[in-house]
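Here we describe the complex-level prediction in full. Unlike the single-chain runs in Section 2.1, the two entities below were treated as one system.
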Amino acid sequence: MSLVDLILTAEAAESRSAVRKTAFRHVHLDERPLIVVAFNLSGEAAAPIGLMWGTGSSADDADFAVSGEPRNRESRFEAINAFCDDFTRHLSPYLRLETVPKRRGGGFRQVAKAAPQIVVPNSATRSYLGARLGRSLRYLGLGETHEVPEPTQWAGAHLSWLAEHSNLPGQSVFVAATEALADHYATGQSALENANLASLLAWIDGLPDDALAMLESVEDSAYGPVPNPEWEAQLEPLVRAYGDALRAGDKEAEQRALDEVEKAVRPKLAEAYQATHRAIEILRKIPPAPGVAERWGTDERSWTTHAIRASKGIPRFARRHDPLRAARALQQWSAAAERLETQQAFDDPLVLARLDAEGRCITGVVEEVDRQNSEVKPGNSRRSSVPLVDVRLTGPTRLLAGERARLVTDKRIAAVVRWRDEETVRLAVMDAARAFCDAPIRPGHEIVFVGLDPWEGQDPWGPNEVPWTHRDGEEPVDGDAPPDDSPDMSLDELAAVPIVGIVSPDDVGGVVL
Amino acid sequence: MAALTENPGCSRRRIVDAAGLKAHELADRLGHPTLRGQSPFAIETGNRFEDRLKKRSGYALLVEALAPFVDLPAPPDLNVEDVNSVGRLADAQTWMEARVAKTDEALARIARGGADAPHVVDHPVLRLDLTGSSVNLEPDALAFRVGDRLELVEIKSYAVIDGQADPAKVSATAAQSAVYHMALRATLERLGFDPELLAWSVILVAPRNFGRTPTAHRIPLRKKSAALARVLGSVPRVGELLDDLPHDLSFDVGSTNTDSRAASEALNVVVSAIDALYVPECVQNCDMAKFCRSEAWSNDDPSRVGRTARDSLAGVSSLSEALALARSANATDGSDAEVGGALRDAFGALERARARSGDQSLLSRTVTDGPR
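The structure predicted for the assembly as a whole is:
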């Protein structure tokens, strides 16, 4: 936590209300993103008890699916298939490819018309839907696994792609509302507590005098994917009743029991859906930063690769990356992280303030500009224009003579610190001197340079070269269908499961006092 | 134990443990019941998984899962020592003593390498002296490799998907196992055997992917154990902590039958008298956390927003004091001069940025604006 963030946190605590920490929005927002919320049965890796999804503003219009007994294969897949069918249908228009002329060199290329956007309440739901539910579905129908409808196989592939893509810093395709809100608002609580959407929204709404009591009451309403244990204790007999009805083969009782589970689960899903929608609307009110469109372009290009693969059939994914793929992904992610940091700093004065507070900026008032100066730059034989600008500092800087900095209002313009003392810094403009000379920079103007010099050259590794960090790794796990490994239990087994009820901390094994 | 190793500097937790109190009961009576609950479904699934590995398959599934690491004979040749078989004894204390003794005896047989040595010790109970007070620990199982090595086995019900499990859960398992490991080494030493008999790792047995088929993975423990030993070695002993407390300090402030509010308030005074070292992560490890969080809120303690906040505001006692320092125009001297300077610089940068952004809604608010 930087000191600027710490001050923002203290300000929020003082006013008992969240404080904006950026001047602009740094996440792309679709007109109507798909909202997905989910609850998973605890103790299972991927057995949803309920899912709700939709693009509308009201949970009443959203679709949902509830499983009466997620440990029973039919019941579980009834819910999963219902979701997957809609999910696949929602994404299919985005898979359509258009043929457009290449930007350079003639010829044509295929692009997806647009990329989809999926918003979930929190990062736990995102990894649940992608890395767990998606992974549990993507090999079905292959090898010796169970057969599932084709849309479910497609959804497995899409969720797997989304899981992978969500690692890319600055992506806006698969968004967790908590992360997006916490990127734009400082609350008076810890990052850990900010992972709860209900509590984040309470801070944005403003808290009453007894703030902690309010926060404690909303913290109980986790918006998935892990249900609150007390709520699960209430669910337990309902789930059991459904299992018993299945076993008895009593269709009417089955429906009644399912209705009961649905009555318990749907309001929780609706609450989570509504909160996620609110988070989106709160973010929408913030004007987007210029870099958002550029990053969304990256998202669209990535989606295009998926769409092209999808045009040849259901895309298949390896269980784990081979060393080359892993190294390449890591390289992409770290480059994207660096690009994101730079872009946000140039786009947003409040993001820049963190660098300024660390002394990584030169902030001051222009004293003198020498546009006529010319020098022989290193490596050149002829003189070229190197304008000089003297800045009287209004804030402290740690940049030293010889360090490079870029003009915040025009990042093409890069300068080198010539000399400095406590009050003044002289900068020599080395890149984009013409742009600098044309810019309306006069004595008396405020000016900010930032010591960010992003790497814009080639990646250090060739496209097919495995960097040393990833050589001699373990054998890659290939894309063959692994065994099904599903959590299914027979109806008799389910009937033998005891009702546990509320679990006291004493019931947890391991330590005996 | 986990709570203490996660936050070893916390005197409050240590004294609660030393007094033999259950943290969750204490928190309950203080009016701040714990946030940590366990799902009935998860507990049930976990118990059923362990039961399948052991009893229901006659340990065959466990032996099969351990096969890549420990070469054990399949049942019926498998010799299992179930420490629980001492039977239910009259009182819990005697029962525990009997189990400790039985575990010792089984360990001795293994260490001696006799033909009658059990291959698997189920439900062992290990005694560990923890900074002046002793606790009993119950690892899931110990397995004896035919040969010369003792392995610690821990059964968990979280999924290992494509060879990878939730890193936070694996780390918690390693921390828990490091404590067992330490207790086991101490026991071996006490019995006069070489503690190096025990492998520096734990074998995690957990469900593979999304089903219930067990898979085993070796988790190295050397680093965790070294960290644990360092932590336990450097913390003040309970006796020293007690020296600093008022002599009439007592957690016994009346039974639950008496006026509960008065009792809760009296208890509050007692518990508050002992220093805590609260950080937000306590909520995940300690049943007292809600009480300490509420205390941190009323003190406006910077540590309630995180460890880094606490560390970068060293010497500043509250968030509002930090804000006052940031807003003050002039440098102060004294203990907080350095922190104050950094805060003023940061505040200056923030205010310049807010002014530049030209967005009125971003301008800094003072408390007079208040929440809306």
